[in-house]
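We emphasize that the prediction below concerns an isolated chain of 114 residues; any contacts that depend on oligomerization or on bound cofactors are therefore not represented. The input was used exactly as deposited, without trimming of termini.
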Amino acid sequence: QVRLVESGGGLVQPGDSLRLSCEASGFTFTEKGMKWYRQAPGKEREFVATISAHGDFMNFAASVRGRFSISRENYKKTVYLQMNNLTPEDAGVYYCGVWGLDDWGPGAQVTVSS
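Result of the prediction step, given as a C-alpha cell string:
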C-alpha cells in the first residue's frame, strides 16, 4: 500500500531555513506528481507546493512563492520541500501527498518562533 513518511521538521527562528523530506513507497513513484500541504492549529489544510512526476512542472501557493522550492529524486523515491526565510505564519504540520491519491503521511511539525 502507499506509504509516505515526512521528516526534517523542527523548531527554528524567523528567517531560518528547513528542508523537509518525504520518502514514498507502495506505488510507481516515477509516474506520480507529488504535493505538499500544511495545516496550522485551528485552520484547514492548505496547499503549499507541487511537482510533476519528472519535475518539469512546479507550482506554489502565493504565500510561499519565492521562499520555498520543491524538488524530487526519483531514484530515492523522495520529494523535498526547501523552506527559506521562514515566518511564524509558516508554522504547522506539513504533509506530503500524491497526485490522484488520497493518501497522506503522518506529517512533520514545523515551529517558527523567536
